[in-house]
Write a structure and sequence with these properties.
single chain, 4 domains, 21 helices
Length: about 625
Amino acid sequence: MRHVALFAMCVGVLALGFALPVHAQGRVVDRYEIKPPTQDQLRKAREWMIALGKQAQQAAPKLHRGETAYFYLFSAFENKADDKRYSDTAEKMFKELCTQFKVNPKSVWIGKCPIFAFNDAKQYATFCAGLGFTGDIEKSGGLTLFRSDGLVCIALNDTKTQTQFYDTMVHEGTHAFMARFLTTRFLPVWVNEGIAEHMCARIIEDSRAKTLWQEATKQVIDGERKPETIFDGVNLDAFDYGMAHALVRFMIEKDGTAFSQFIRRLKQGESEEAALKAAYKTDRAGLIRNWRAGAEESLKAAQREAEKKEALKETQKPDPQAKAAPSDKTEAKTTPPPKEPLKPIPPHPSPSSDDPLAIMPATEEQAQAAKEWAMDLGDRGKQAAPKMHLVETSNFYLYSTFENKAGDTLFRDTADRMFKELCKQFQVNPDEVWLDKCPILSFNDTKQFVAFCKTIDIDEERAEKTGGFAWWRSDGLVYIVLHNKWKNTAQFYDTMVHEGTHAFMARYLTSRPLPTWVNEGFAEHMCATLLKDSRAKTLWQDATKQVLAGKENPRSIFADTWRIESFDYGMAHSLVRFMIRKDNKAFVEFIRLLKQGKSEEDALQATYKTDREGLLKAWRTVAAQTIK
């Protein structure tokens, strides 16, 4: 917690009943090591996030939620511009931390990290009390909760003071990241606080951290304070935060690689003394001595940099005496009125008492809010791709960049055929699947696709690699974005049906995710069922042949982390195809049980009277004949 002497403990939240299952992988070398989450852990994490969201909205009814690639963002901001800055800052911070420590972004959180931003101190304190925090919470700017089972959340107070708010957000966000880096071991307080302040200074333009380290350095040079007090780690004041930042800043500027190694060693259980010796060939006293030697020059350099920035700002100011150059044309320009901020999708007024993740038929208010979001997505699409146009069906808003009527017709017919087949398979009322209609945006041009993706917080590198994706949010909104990067009609529609199936399954019965092999296998099965030239028709056969030839292990599809290779998709499809052909009613019941929260083991036993090994054994007995 920033500027408040409280530490996040595993208190209070466990009363919600969402303790995560223990990781089910083999031998554990380090009991503190953080492993990729299992499907069961991801499901429990999502349930915890939904419970926290309800708890937060009870404390602050106007709180609404957004979502990025790595965060669930609950906020009390009242306009779209503030919400955008909120999400942009979270993603920028996360990207910077992943770069600093060379971390795969997908390996950090269990699912996504929830952040709650309140603009009322009493509402913030009420929420924090529900997390188990007591004391004078209203005066704190924010806190980070990290539980022993790996779940993390951040609560922030006072969205009205923007600079201070974002300082606190980045500070606490850095604590949350470091709690999930490599192991669950805590860093020494001076290191933890110094990194958090350093990240604020790097990311927030007007961060107070930029002056705190300079003030602390001056106090040491003038003999007013002793730098060694930061090693005590208790009763921290502004000097301690500034001094810890000054020391961490010095270490990173001296050797950023050595600093990352220092942190790694600490997180792996080495003492501070041993980690300093290995990374910087020194001890605390030597570190302070080396810092002191360059402290005055660091201050001067920082002052010169600040003066340069100030001078640059002055040159960029418009000259009030300057007159516009004469023009032989006078153009009448009108400024369009600002768009009203989008209303958040409200929670259902009568949620299921039996299952908090159950999907209820949408209310008129939810449907209207979802329609406004769909229109907004379409507007963003048209800004990126000016020729994009709307083709509407009973169940979809199709934003198309096809250049002729035949292309639009095939786009529309394929979407409707896919939806009809899915509703038939699971005997679902078509009117109860989406909140309103599902938007599908189709791009023919890579630059336009990338430009659109940036508006929904997907960076250029990720966007360029994908042919499309389905996005489902915790508030029930679902949409699909397609990129015809291969200029290949068959592959485009394969992607559309695959992602469309994911979108449908995200809205079927409950918001619980399916095991990856089931989700991907069924999506591939739908492609093969609906599309004449689908590549899925050959992938499952190729995968089956590889298993029969002893070249691949079919159990790889059950791994917690998929390789995302052709074999995995083909093998998952082959197994799902076998299950459907063996007993389609049993398969539908298997999916229903999974979506209602049964474990994969229990669902298989209840429907097919077997387990994973038995399922694979039964599949093998008919695999060769199936290919023939």
